[in-house]
Design brief:
Shape: globular
Helix content: 10-25%
Number of strands: 19
Order of helices and strands: HHEEEEEEEEEEEEEEEEEEEH
Strand content: 25-35%
Radius of gyration: 17 Å
Length: about 180
């Protein structure tokens, strides 16, 4: 078996990303391991143990917290904004298949990036499908499946997730005590 420098670098990145999932590391060291593996994490990002990043094609903004057992299939890239809360057991997926013929309905693989805006909150067990943009200030209720874009400042729930309520933007919500 012959390793190229690029192959060795990819293998090292994968190993570091896998080791970072172990619960023995303090948050600060876990963050450093993930950055060493190639993730773009702002200085105040908090990633709990057992969070899995498939390809490390992720950028995460300041103040964001990602809870245990979340999974990021980041082939096409995942951008998570500032001050986002991702609860436990969330899944963010960036691949899908086009619809194929009757002989095999899962057609060719497609990669589509996902964007989660500033100030969002994804409840426990949320699944975000490929190509989705979740606008700033959204709340996605536990167990929801986000199949299409979410307009900013809304509460979304269900399978598929639908807008259930308008939420006030940051300035208005601070004034209203929300």
């Amino acid at each position: 078996m012959h390793f190229t420098p690029a192959g060795a670098q990819r293998l090292t990145g994968k190993l570091v990303a896998e080791v970072s999932m172990w619960p023995v590391w303090p948050v600060v060291l876990r963050r450093r391991l993930l950055v060493a593996a190639g993730l773009q994490l702002a200085p105040t990002v908090d990633v709990k143990d057992r969070v899995r990043f498939v390809r490390r094609n992720v950028s995460v903004g300041d103040g964001t917290r990602i809870n245990r057992y979340s999974y990021f299939e980041d082939h096409a890239g995942v951008h998570i904004g500032r001050e986002v809360s991702v609860a436990a057991h969330c899944k963010v997926l960036t691949t899908t298949h086009t619809l194929g013929p009757a002989a095999r309905r899962a057609g060719p693989l497609e990669e589509r990036p996902v964007r989660i805006g500033d100030g969002c909150w994804l409840g426990t067990g949320v699944t975000v499908l490929a190509g989705v943009t979740i606008g700033d200030g959204c709340v996605v209720a536990a167990g929801s499946v986000v199949t299409s874009d979410c307009e900013p400042h809304g509460l979304y729930a269900g399978v598929p997730a639908r807008r259930k309520k308008d939420l006030l933007p940051a300035r208005e919500s601070a004034a209203a005590g929300q």
